[in-house]
């Protein structure tokens, strides 16, 4: 018979991988699922460690492009500018996240009611933005100006409130600032790389005293599940967004938030 923690780890890993790069808030889904599954992880260390699976997934999918950019850095002005825009977009989250880390993890992450409300609010915002008629000025992430990247970076900071969604905040910000849907999602992917690595490293340092290899099997299951499902999502998401837009994700957020809020109010 499979242990309950293993099953919970598998479920949470799949949820992490499926939602990390969608504008639905992976943090909200993992925390709410963990709450209702009764899965206990001191300091949320499990969520921190399985996130590495999603990080490796996007690095794998974009490996060829990342290598191409790295190789062309000495000769290509465009490549150097692109790397600078990604670092500039990452900077606001790096500074604010480091300062507010303890408050975010000990207060905001421990408030399921807030998470559900933010899922619903974010869903309506995403739905409204998806229905707007834009005339995009930016179609290629390699040509995003530095000022645009910094503004998107500040939008990303909103995701420090669990339930907001890092990808949702960056995508909505990019759309409102003149990017088209496909490049907005792709820039969110690239911005996720330093942001997720930075958040993972900070969480690892802050919670190193809580880490234990006693639950290594649970962690490995969650990690592998997150990695496999995240690879699938990253490979297919851009085409889906190009053809369907963001409305399906908005409706999903509203539904999950409403169900979670109802369950919490009923004492679940």
UniProtKB/TrEMBL annotation:
Subcellular location: Cell membrane
Entry's EC annotation: 3.6.1.27
InterPro entries (alphabetical): UppP
Main localization category: membrane
Keyword set includes Transmembrane helix: yes
Catalyzed reactions: di-trans,octa-cis-undecaprenyl diphosphate + H2O = di-trans,octa-cis-undecaprenyl phosphate + phosphate + H(+)
Cellular component, GO annotation: plasma membrane
One of the protein's GO biological processes: peptidoglycan biosynthetic process
One Gene Ontology MF term: undecaprenyl-diphosphatase activity
Functional note: Catalyzes the dephosphorylation of undecaprenyl diphosphate (UPP). Confers resistance to bacitracin.
Homology family: Belongs to the UppP family.
Protein name: Undecaprenyl-diphosphatase
Organism: Rhizobium soli
